[in-house]
Design goal:
The complex is a heterodimer. Chain A is mainly beta. Chain A contains no helices and eleven strands. In chain A, the strands form two sheets. In chain A, strands 2, 4, 5, 9, 10 and 11 form a six-stranded mixed sheet that branches. The chains are: A mainly beta, B mainly beta. Chains A and B meet through strand 4, strand 5 and strand 9 of A and strand 5, strand 9 and strand 10 of B.
């Protein structure tokens, strides 16, 4: 079993839809949770950073962490075609080394 | 803020040559930088962790004599792929953690290496 599981997609939605992206993990030591967006042939861009459980909102993006269920989510409201990218979840247990999910490819059609 | 650059953005070389890739944090200092490799449609694979002024820590299965890492300053780390072979063709990405925010990594744009 992988430490971090993420559905590779692709996930196709129409413009304006609410998108839900998820990851599950097995290591209870993880405390830091991140979401990165990666466009094709580019480096990952940090979108959201969360410590421990709870919600965090930034514009159209909301990150949720449920440590009891070992489940994290990223919600994108009013999705735009420019949101089409691969979204990677990442997490660490406080020793800097990040463990990544495989990434979910999101396609937002106009 | 938190911008990381990489140079070159892409490189084509002949088999047997060495290639150096630079990673710079432009607007912050980073005691720790990381080097990743990414194959098409796959996630990032950590190759090594580089701390300023000390030897890099390599992940299992990564040849330290083939992938030389130097972290000479708080804003620069270099990865040299020595005696490159076609199987070394990949997308190499670095990241850097700002001092005081060591659980956060900011990534560079990546370097695409093609070995002929």
């Amino acid at each position: 079993q992988k430490e971090v599981e993420q559905d590779p997609g692709p996930l196709s939605v129409p413009e304006g839809a609410i998108v839900s992206l998820n990851c599950t993990y097995s290591n209870s030591a993880f405390q830091y949770f991140m979401w990165y967006r990666q466009y094709s042939r580019k480096g990952p861009e940090l979108l959201m950073y969360t410590y421990s459980s709870g919600n965090k909102e930034d514009g159209r993006f909301t990150a949720q962490v449920d440590k009891s269920s070992k489940y994290i989510s990223l919600f994108i409201r009013d999705s735009q075609p420019s949101d089409s990218a691969t979204y990677l979840c990442a997490m660490s247990g406080g020793f800097q080394k990040l463990v990544f999910g495989t990434g979910t490819r999101l396609l937002v059609s106009p | 803020g938190a911008v990381v650059s990489q140079h070159p953005s892409w490189v084509i070389c002949k088999s047997g040559t060495s290639v150096k890739i630079e990673c710079r944090s432009l607007d912050f200092q980073a005691t720790t930088m990381f080097w990743y490799r990414q194959f098409p449609k796959q996630s990032l694979m950590l190759m090594a962790t580089s701390n300023e002024g000390s030897k890099a820590t390599y992940e299992q299965g990564v040849e330290k004599d083939k992938f030389l890492i130097n972290h000479a300053s708080l804003t620069l780390s270099t990865l040299t792929v020595t005696s490159a072979h076609p199987e070394d063709s990949s997308f190499y990405i670095c990241s850097a953690s700002p001092i005081g925010y060591q659980e956060t990594q900011y990534f560079g744009p990546g370097t695409r290496l093609l070995v002929l």
